[in-house]
Amino acid sequence: MSYPKALLAARQHLVVILGLLSAAALVSWLEMPSCPVPPPLPAGEIPGALHGALSEEETRWAQAAWRYFQRNSQEETGLVDAADGRSVTTLWDTGSHLLAMIAAHRLGVIDRSEFDQRLGRVLNALARIPLFQGELPNRFYLTETLGMADAEGLPSDRGVGWSAVDIARVLVPLDVIVWNYPAHAAEASAVVRRWRLDRLVREGVLTGAVVDAQGQVEYSQEGRGAYEAYAAKALALMGIAAPAVAVSHGYAKVQGVEVPFDPRPPERFSTRNYTVGEPYVIEGLEFGWDRDGREEAWRVFRAQENRFKATGRLTAASSGPVDEAPYFVYNAVYAGTRSWQTLATDGREVSDFRFLNAGDAVGWHVLYDTEYGRQLAEKAAGLFDPERGWYAGWYETKDRVNRAMSAGTNAMVLEAMHFRQFGALVAVQPPLELAEPAPSTRPQAAQPPDGRGAAARAKPAAKSGPVLRARTGMAGSRKGKGASAAPKTSTGHGAKTRKTDARSAGKHR
């Protein structure tokens, strides 16, 4: 039979095959996440980062930041209080503590002996913490006892649920430890082997758990915008399929710049969807931005710069603690349908508490080598106590220091100084021969590092470590209607000191 005749004879089969292929292609196209085409970037080239050996002043910044962790470390457990003097923490803040420790060691702020001792205690504590329902870390822990805490900072035998974003955060330093500190790799592995990380992603989205008012555990989507993207990258380090976040991406015009925001309404999804600086800054400092991340962060940076040009008010807007009630606020670049709102955790407008975030200011300074970045750093340079650590920032309308202190602010300063000298934290770093540490870790006695390794650029890390493997299984999926965000926060004094603790540590991401 000739070739044309064979084709003719098989025409019915070929039509069926082509039909099936066309149907499959159509289904795949229809189910692809729709992502808006990004609007044009602000005029001008995106600047490069600021790299090089630390100056004497920047060394003092790093050493002042480490003082926070020295002062707030619990002797019995090695964990650090999320907020100054309040003995509660979260997995997010514990991740910040570990990243700060790694940065402090590489910068020569602490020597290898102190690093090994502190890291060993924290890893031992994480290997012993009780887990919510025996599966994943609870939202809050008491740093003195390792016991689970509730949203009021009181001991809780059962726990209150888990945060997918917070857990993803602590995976970042654990991955760094496996690749760069083999002496501690087995300890890091022992921590993660207990956790059912497969429970964090359900039906393709990040999922958190919370115990509702009736005592029922509800599961719902967690994470918004850049926080969700950050968590997805962290989970990818463990080889866990990252959820697609493109479907939750939009743009809003702020100060003449189209900035990214998450259009999912909080009334429907029960999670805050504010655009703030923190997730963009830490993604750059820890992972190094990819092209999209670099462009999105540039939009947020430029909107803040344009606000300064229009108002004369230096702007580094982010979430963070404040030193009086309501004790925690969101300084949003964009929230809901409006820009430049400052909101309490219950959604109230509290514009008197708008403040320049010191950690963000230092982070933007090293990520973008610009005049505005230098102005932010100059303002932040006076916002630390060399004996205690960095303050949260500077109030705009009150025109004074926001004297709240937290692990998050001080960790960001140390991460920024590491990025300045060595590049991103998530990388397989070359062996580092450090000079003898300064005679004291207190800033007034500090000597600047000699810059060894300043020109070395980190190689990209592999996606998961050979030792750091999670406990996974075929856990069933339960749909939940409740919010996966941490409960609302406020604070008290005196007999209610414990109630201040968890509220200071928790964030809605």
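Above is the first protein from milestone M3; the second protein from the same milestone is given next.
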Amino acid sequence: MEMKQVYEALEKVENGADLIAAIKGEINTLNNEAKKHRTAGEQSATKLKSILEAVGLEVLHSIRYLKNSLYLGPTRLKNS
């Protein structure tokens, strides 16, 4: 079911317009919050890239190193 269909169904019930307004308001709030987090993540990634470049590390190499360092596969768990 698409949101358009949900809104159409809600229009037919008592206080449907209020329910639609509440849903749209909540969706707007969630979208704004997601945008805030997405923007913060992008800013953090930019800062990290700048820091890594400043110390002479290649970003791709550093990301692979961090990924491999943080991986706790079955072998590492047995030896821990």
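Note on the second protein: The helical segments are 3-11, 16-54, 59-70, 74-79.
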